[in-house]
Design goal:
single chain; mainly alpha; globular; about 140 residues
């Protein structure tokens, strides 16, 4: 497969994730949806220990994997290990937009994992998530 085809495929898959999230949230602003998706991926990454964060990142499509790892310091201890800090991380990622409910965003992004990853992968991801966040998974 040529590099251009792989890039176009990765771009299309990422656009599909964004379009799906737009539909789930019933939002019309792709930029706001993108921000919400990336903020949630970063909040998820930052609530996991290093090994689980790497495992989750490896399950993402190519471009989303890059966005997921952007700014990550694997030597840092996991943070956002409680519900409030997790949701606050998402809210900060969308510039504290009062029209954005971070819990709704988190639920819909995690639903995308359920819809797009094999069941065994989702079970492992959910098990790696801190207990206080597990009820956000569908």
């Amino acid at each position: 497969m040529c590099a251009r085809h792989e890039f176009n495929n990765a771009f299309e898959i990422t656009q599909n994730w964004i379009s799906d999230l737009m539909w789930r949230l019933r939002w019309h602003d792709r930029e706001r949806v993108y921000q919400a998706l990336i903020a949630t991926l970063h909040a998820l990454r930052d609530c996991l220990d290093r090994d689980h964060a790497v495992y989750m990142g490896a399950r993402l499509p190519t471009l989303l994997r890059g966005f997921y790892y952007e700014g990550w310091n694997p030597g840092r201890r996991a943070n956002a290990r409680n519900r409030n800090s997790f949701l606050e991380r998402i809210h900060v990622g969308v510039q504290r937009d009062p029209a954005v409910d971070p819990e709704v965003v988190a639920r819909f992004v995690l639903a995308q994992f359920v819809d797009r990853l094999p069941t065994a992968e989702v079970k492992r991801a959910k098990a790696a998530t801190p207990r206080v966040l597990q009820n956000l998974w569908p």
